[in-house]
Design goal:
single chain, about 140 residues, alpha+beta, 2 helices, about 20% helix
């Protein structure tokens, strides 16, 4: 299973072909555009701009895009003190309130700025870390 040393934020698109994953970090998948389907530990839910999944480390999740789609994905280290343990006690689909929908869209615009940079680019890593830290502050 894949581990991560620090939080990461990415804008992702999912194929029509179903895929599965299990990893050693928590994940929050927030709908931005279009729709995808995801089942976590056998419980399925559509994700669009009004829905999200909270996926605990070690939970199997199956997923597929439904046409054009974009999701904002937050990868969070399971052992981080900054991540409330109760948030990931179990997998769950959640509804996104309109105010949060606007924030997710703004974060997606910021994440999209770094999509064109090479994966190993240190500026990209620093920028993502900055956006993660800034997003956790009032007015950030």
């Amino acid at each position: 299973m894949e581990r991560i040393p620090s939080p990461a934020v990415a804008l992702r698109r999912y194929d029509l072909l179903e895929a599965s994953d299990v990893h050693d970090f928590h994940q929050i998948v927030l709908g931005v555009d279009g729709t995808m389907v995801m089942a976590v530990d056998g419980v399925g839910q559509r994700i669009d701009r009004h829905a999200a999944w909270l996926i605990p480390a070690g939970a199997r999740h199956d997923y597929a895009g439904l046409g054009e789609n974009r999701q904002l994905v937050l990868d969070l280290p399971a052992a981080s003190l900054a991540v409330p343990r109760q948030l990931f006690e179990r997998a769950r689909a959640v509804s996104i309130e309109p105010a949060l929908t606007s924030l997710v869209a703004q974060l997606a615009v910021g994440a999209a700025q770094f999509d064109g940079m090479p994966a190993g680019d240190t500026q990209r890593a620093a920028a993502r870390r900055f956006h993660w830290q800034g997003g956790g502050r009032p007015g950030g």
